[in-house]
Every structure is written in C-alpha cells, then in structure tokens.
Write a structure and sequence with these properties.
Helix content is 21%, strand content 0%. The protein has 67 residues and is an all-alpha fold.
Length: 67
C-alpha cells in the first residue's frame, strides 16, 4: 500500500501487483495477505458514488435488480 495518496487518471486500466516488502521474513503470513490489503483500502475510493454501490454493484454494472 502506498505511503501517500496516489492520484490516477480516471478511465485508465491498471494492473496491481503485490510484492512482499523487504524485511527479515519473520512477519506473519496473514500480514501480507490480499484480504488484509483490501481491508486496508476499503472505503477510500473518491468520487460521486451511490451509498449502496457495494451492496448493489450488479445493479449498477449489469442492470440486475437491486438487493
């Protein structure tokens, strides 16, 4: 995870690569898990998004009924 906010141009496709940080290798495996990373950035998206976007993403992406 970046130490500072990163501004990325909207509409651009990105590939995210996760590499372990250099260290002594004694950190617990779960400290580097994708789950922990995603939980750390959850709720940080900036923009004018609907409050129920996470719950109803299929509605907004594919037109399926809202939950």
């Amino acid at each position: 995870m970046p130490d500072e906010p990163v501004e990325l141009p909207p509409g651009t496709k990105y590939r995210v690569t996760l590499d372990p940080m250099p260290g002594d290798g004694e950190e617990a495996e779960e400290d580097h898990s994708l789950r922990q990373f995603l939980l750390g950035i959850a709720g940080t998206a900036k923009g004018d998004y609907p409050a129920d976007l996470a719950r109803n993403h299929d509605y907004y992406l594919h037109g399926r009924p809202k939950r």
